[in-house]
Specification:
The N and C termini lie far apart (41 Å). Helix 1 crosses helix 2 and helix 1 packs across helix 3. Strands 1-2 form a two-stranded parallel ribbon. It is globular. It is built from seven helices and two strands. The chain is mainly alpha-helical.
């Protein structure tokens, strides 16, 4: 089977796995876990290292989500360190958005959009965006959330997920 045919099968499976992942608030998946699941689901296996082909699959999923007006499901796929990494920047490139200083925070809000679309158990207001456990722990978010249980809701652009200014107009879209 050609890489192109395999990539199509893998990207269809990846989209399905990421939608399944988004169906429960707070869930995410590592690149390695996603690679294993898409190979099992598609029935197409490779001995090539995951790092050599998985970025291409995540790009296909990002393009599909962007074209269909879906939230960026690739925000649910993280590296072993629970960070989205450079592949998430492709989501921003597709939307012609600048790369934010805090990529993990942006991805957290994007994950919230995924959960809001596919999950039934989503809090009405995200407060602190759903960061992955390792990222949240490194930032001390859990302790901050316990200290300040009531936080104001940040207005986000529904197209690019950037924080809106006080007038509510997104200057990027």
């Amino acid at each position: 089977m050609s890489f192109r045919d395999a990539a199509i099968a893998w990207s269809l499976a990846a989209h399905e796995v990421l939608v399944e992942t988004a169906s429960t608030y707070g869930h995410f998946i590592t690149v390695t876990e996603l690679a294993e699941r898409v190979q099992d689901m598609s029935g197409v296996h490779t001995n090539a290292p995951t790092r050599t082909w998985m970025d291409a699959i995540l790009r296909k999923v990002a393009r599909r989500c962007h074209g269909a007006g879906e939230p960026p499901l690739t925000a649910l796929c993280v590296n072993r360190n629970h960070k989205v990494g450079d592949i998430y920047k492709y989501v921003l490139e597709l939307a012609a958005l600048p790369i934010p200083d805090d990529l993990e925070l942006h991805a957290g809000y994007a994950r919230w959009q995924c959960y809001a679309t596919y999950a039934a158990d989503v809090p009405a207001e995200p407060g602190v965006p759903p960061l992955t456990p390792k990222v949240a722990a490194a930032r001390g978010v859990a302790a901050a959330a316990e200290a300040k249980p009531e936080q104001t809701r940040v207005a986000l652009c529904s197209e690019c997920f950037t924080q809106l200014p006080a007038n509510g107009v997104c200057y990027y879209c």
